[in-house]
Design goal:
Blueprint lengths: L10 H9 L4 H14 L11 H30 L3 E5 L3 E4 L2 H8 L2 H10 L5 H6 L4 E3 L3 H15 L4 E6 L7 E4 L5 E4 L12 E12 L2 E5 L3 E5 L2 E13 L6 E11 L5 H5 L3 H13 L15 H23 L8 H4 E6 L6 H12 L4 H11 E4 L10 E3 H7 L1 H21 L4 H7 L2 E2 L5 E3 H7 L1 E6 L2 H9 L3 H7 L4 E3 L6 H7 L2 H11 L4 H4 L15 H26 L8 E6 L8 H16 L3 H4 L5 E6 L7 H19 L7 E6 L4 H7 L5 E2 L20 H9 L4 H4 L1 H11 L10 H8 L6 H20 L1 H13 L6 H13 L8
Parallel strand pairs: 1-4, 1-12, 4-11, 12-13, 13-17, 17-18, 19-20, 19-22, 20-21
Antiparallel strand pairs: 2-3, 5-6, 7-10, 8-9, 10-11, 14-16, 15-16
Helix pairs in contact: 1-2, 2-3, 2-5, 3-4, 7-34, 10-12, 12-13, 12-15, 14-15, 21-23, 23-33, 24-26, 24-30
The structure holds 1-(beta-D-glucopyranosyl)-5-iodopyrimidine-2,4(1H,3H)-dione.
The site of 1-(beta-D-glucopyranosyl)-5-iodopyrimidine-2,4(1H,3H)-dione has 16 residues, from helix 7.
Length: 800
């Protein structure tokens, strides 16, 4: 029937894998075939898409490793000052497509895959699982920064944990609720990591700390766990520079305790191995919320101690005295998660390297910088002193010693101000006492920053006010967050990337590496041909996303509707509630119109996505409400093509890459002053308003009649059993901590303005162009260079 005899692709190409003489043209196919035949032990007869993806990944990895080796050799030879980004989360997503684009090899690999019988390259790309080693913004920021560090040719490494289970997989049950399933992402081999059993350190927990002399101690006993390195090469974009992300995995020091084993107690024998490996088992799925679990503190110390052991070992190889440590090492603390690094470095200096306490403290402060990512009180880390005493007895001593001299200095500056001492102490008094990790991070760092202008101002004037008074304002800065334009424009929106390149002229690296060049788009904004192309790209992205939704959810989307998107972690302060209540209001409004009026309504597709922490009852209730509202609206013939509501399950980096390019508007509607970054429309903090609700309660009907109607409709059971949502409705009726009722009417007003604006297609497309043209500042290249210059004092080291 005309079928080829050969299984797939070109027989000669497959056969050349192990035999042919190497030429430029065949080297990529050869390398892929080599990996098919050796690394994954398959052949042309039994290779499928997933196998082809893996063989290609190993082939691309070979390229990365060559560059990685050369870069690390260069760093060793030149011995520049290096920076280390300590982050408990790196939300990387997929790697293959990104690596190919950064290497400039995507087309070559596409061609090679075609020769081997794989026509649809995107299908191969999509068989890669996301590396979801992060919760949300904080983890994705770390991933963007590590990309920009390599692209800007900075000697910057990341240090993190190799969680065996990443962010949970979110499913939606038939009643609309979130159900969590594990994410065993390492079940398939991970081609993007290099296991380094030779790079390992022992990390101690528990035991006893015995003081010797004024400042030193000996810490011994307890449990020792082995930290083993896994290296992930991080390629820069259009440079050979390739940095390293070093992730630690936990291994038992000894697999078996032979004494117990011989005694016939098998369970006890494997116990130590169980508890060691439990350390890196799973990512804690909480965002902007502190959960005081001992295992979490163990993760923090394990990762921090291994990273500092690695950093000090590397420093020692330079043969320089420790008095110069800070001239070679800068360490950035991504939030307070790695703050235990401050007393750990003191322990290394004082106990292990015999450096006098005062000198050790001077160097320590010069090494660290601390980035704060939230002012929400429930997210600020505080650990009970008894837990610390048990798990890290030596570190507790160091913290108390540091606190003692710090409070002496405060006392000297403001004599007899007991309130101030209580406020500023690293130790919060009570039963039990708590250690305030953010304060420890502040006193241990030379510089503290927030992540947006407004947020940094709030840090200075609220949670850190006393410390600004004490140290002076220059210690407290701002580095506005950024995102990598490679992944978030060039890779996920190739249509727009091509249009931009074509419009600005030259090649794409020009603007991709200097995003302020996007301003050049403004001079074309009145060109109707350009406007048309811009609108076409958006339409194609909406079609691509609609296809994905139809395949995965079986729902057809009207691609000429306005796509209104809110994707982020579910959290009360982010107010997905305001959005869904607004949607219900829209639904009720449309229902009350006659057919003629309905025809004039601007059609909308409202898309939600995001995960709720498994223990966050109210956030999960909002997910359930969204899904049940969607069910009713999407099934109502009156709303067909006019209003569609969807909760896209399992929001992830890869889903974001499809969804974001398809959006017309994006909702950032958190209560003013609560979202650290994303400053554009937050003008002030509503502290007084919140006070009013508590002491001058007024009925919801008075505050917002429109919202009162919406709540009534929910309670009456329009979206399934109303009693389920009573706890949620009560948060709005009484207290309304997140000010939904205060903002509801003006939110509806804003949505009306959006509808009106969307009807004027030309001015809408111009708004879209302007938005893109003016977003250059928000490149993570700018952000990382800001850290490099003002916080780390490091310089680019270019590999030729
Ligand atoms: I703290 N952020 C986060 O994703 N998880 C956290 O646990 C904490 C902060 C986020 C903030 O909420 C965002 O506003 C910010 O843009 C992001 O960190 C990166 O700075």
């Amino acid at each position: 029937d005309g079928k080829e005899v050969w299984p797939r692709g070109q027989e000669s190409v497959w056969k050349s894998g192990l035999r042919a003489v190497e030429t430029e043209e065949t080297s990529i196919t050869k390398s892929i075939v080599h990996h098919v035949q050796t690394t994954i032990a398959r052949q042309a007869y039994n290779i499928d898409e997933e196998g082809a993806y893996r063989a290609i990944a190993y082939s691309v990895r070979d390229n990365l490793i060559v560059n990685w080796n050369d870069t690390q050799m260069l760093y060793t030879r030149k011995a520049p000052k290096r920076a280390y980004y300590l982050s408990l989360e790196f939300l990387m997503g997929r790697t293959l497509d990104n690596a190919l684009l950064n290497l400039g090899l995507k087309e070559d690999y596409q061609k090679a895959a075609r020769k081997l019988g794989f026509e649809d390259f995107e299908e191969l790309v999509e068989s890669e699982r996301d590396a979801a080693l992060g919760n949300g913004g904080l983890g994705r920021l770390a991933a963007c920064y590590i990309d920009s560090g390599a692209t800007c040719e900075l000697p910057l490494w990341g240090y993190g944990l190799r969680y065996h289970y990443g962010m949970f997989w979110q499913q939606i049950s038939t009643d609309g609720s979130q159900v969590e399933a594990p994410d065993p992402w390492l079940n398939h081999a991970n081609p993007w990591e290099v296991h380094r059993p030779d790079v390992s350190y022992l990390v101690r927990f528990y035991g006893h700390a015995e003081r010797i002399g004024d400042s030193k101690a000996i810490w011994s006993g307890g449990q020792e766990v082995m930290a083993v390195a896994y290296d992930v090469p991080i390629p820069g974009s259009y440079t050979r520079n390739t940095n390293n992300l070093r992730l630690w995995d936990a291994k038992p020091k000894r697999g078996f305790d032979l004494n117990s084993f011989n005694a016939g107690d098998y369970e006890k024998a494997v116990e130590s191995s169980n508890s060691a490996e439990a350390l890196t088992r799973v990512l804690y799925p909480n965002d902007n919320h502190m959960v005081g679990k001992e295992l979490r503190l163990k993760q923090q110390y394990f990762w921090t101690a291994a990273s500092l052991a690695d950093i000090t070992r590397r420093f020692k190889q330079l043969g320089e005295p420790f008095s110069k440590f800070h001239e070679y090492v800068a360490i950035q603390l991504n939030d307070t998660h790695p703050t235990i690094a401050v007393p750990e470095l003191m322990r290394i200096f004082v106990d292990e390297e015999d450096i006098p306490w005062d000198q050790a403290w001077e160097i320590t402060q010069k090494v660290f910088g601390y980035t704060n990512h939230t002012v929400l009180p429930e997210a600020l880390e505080k650990w009970p002193v008894p837990l610390f005493q048990h798990l890290l007895p030596r570190h507790l001593q160091i913290i108390f010693d540091l606190n003692h001299s710090f409070l002496q200095a405060v006392e000297k500056k403001w004599p007899n101000d007991r309130d101030r001492l209580t406020r500023m102490s690293l130790i919060q008094e009570g039963f039990p006492q708590y250690i305030r990790m953010a304060y420890l991070a502040v006193i241990g760092s030379h510089k503290v920053n927030g992540v947006a202008e407004l947020h940094s101002e709030l840090v200075r004037t609220t949670i850190m006010k006393d410390f600004v008074d004490f140290y002076g304002p220059s210690k407290f800065g701002n580095v506005t967050n950024g995102i990598t334009p490679r992944r978030w424009l060039d890779q996920c929106n190739p249509g727009l990337s091509s249009l931009i390149t074509e419009t600005l002229g030259g090649d794409k690296t020009k603007w991709l590496k200097d995003l302020s060049k996007l301003e050049g788009l403004l001079s074309h904004i009145d060109d109707p041909a350009f406007q048309k192309k811009w609108a076409d790209v958006k339409l194609q992205n909406k079609q691509r996303f609609a296809q994905f939704i139809e395949q995965t959810m079986g729902v057809k989307l009207n691609t000429s509707a306005l796509f209104d998107v809110q994707v982020k972690r579910l959290h009360e302060y982010k107010r997905q509630s305001l959005n869904i209540l607004g949607v219900i209001h829209r639904y009720l409004t449309i229902k009350s119109l006659n057919a003629e009026e309905r025809a004039k309504v601007v059609p909308r597709v409202v898309l939600f996505g995001g995960k709720a922490a498994p223990g966050y009852y109210m956030a999960k209730l909002v997910i359930r409400l969204i899904n049940n509202v969607a069910k009713v609206i999407n099934a109502d013939p009156d709303l067909q093509g006019i209003l569609t509501v969807l909760f896209v399950p399992d929001y992830s980096v890869s889903v974001a890459e499809l969804l974001i390019p398809a959006s017309d508007i994006s909702e950032h509607i958190s209560t003013a002053g609560t979202e650290a970054s994303g400053t554009s429309n937050m003008k002030f903090c509503f502290e007084d308003l919140r006070y009013n609700h508590q002491y001058h309660p007024t009925s919801l009907e008075e505050r917002s009649p429109a919202l009162a109607v919406v709540c009534k409709v929910i309670a009456e059971g329009r979206f399934g059993d109303g009693s389920i949502y009573e706890p949620f409705l009560n948060t709005i009726r009484t207290g309304d901590y997140y000010l939904v009722s205060d903002d509801f009417d003006s939110y509806l007003e804003a949505q009306k303005m959006v509808d009106t604006a969307y009807q004027d297609k030309v001015s809408w497309v111009k708004k879209s162009i302007t938005t893109t043209a003016k977003m250059g500042k928000f490149s993570s290249d700018r952000a990382i260079m800001n850290y490099a210059e003002e916080y780390w004092n490091i310089e680019p080291v270019k590999l030729n």
